[in-house]
Amino acid sequence: MGNQSGQSYGLTILSPIINNGSRAAAQDLALRHHLSKLANGEHSPFAKVPGTHFVRLVVMGDVVFVGYPARDEHLKSQYLICTADFDGELDPYLQTLARTIPAELDAIWKHCVGYPGATDPAKFAEYIKKCQVETTLYFSDVNDRTLEQTLKALLVKTAVTAFAERYQGQPASVVQPAFKKFLTELSQTPAPRPGAAGI
Fold first, then answer.
1. Among 133, 159, 176, residue at a domain's last position
2. Within this chain, do residues 101 and 165 fall inside the same structural domain, yes or no?
3. What pLDDT, on a 0 to 100 scale, did the predictor assign at position 102?
4. Which of 88, 123, 161, 164 has its CA 20 to 30 A from that of 1?
């Protein structure tokens, strides 16, 4: 299936933005303004949703005419494009999304045609699936690892690099006991929070 790579799922959504005559620009601008203020990294609302590797949101106003042999075409609507990578299956993830951050989802998708709100996770999931397009040529660089496993691996990589830099050139009598202590501490260190800086 094009949307999956191992245990990772790649979701692509095109949600048409409400076009109600003179207020169409207001919907577009309000959505763009909201997205520009949306926190990212570990403060992103999507970082609260288990299994979320990343989410990207962008407003597409129109398609660009790139010249011959392409035709000059225009969209009938502006679209909110959402792409996401997460662990597991689509329906459980979408319902978890709606249960975890309903207010944040409503603040984003209320500008889109037919949005039912996130108070009913099943209806939210149904709406998102209607807006879904197949993620063709989906590539996941960590398709056999969960988000937590990936975050822990990044932590280990950073910590081992820092250890090697710190003890470079030291005698074995110093490095060996330090490395044993380092391994013990590392095994007891939990995975970083999603979106945390420095990993």
1. 133
2. no
3. 97
4. 123
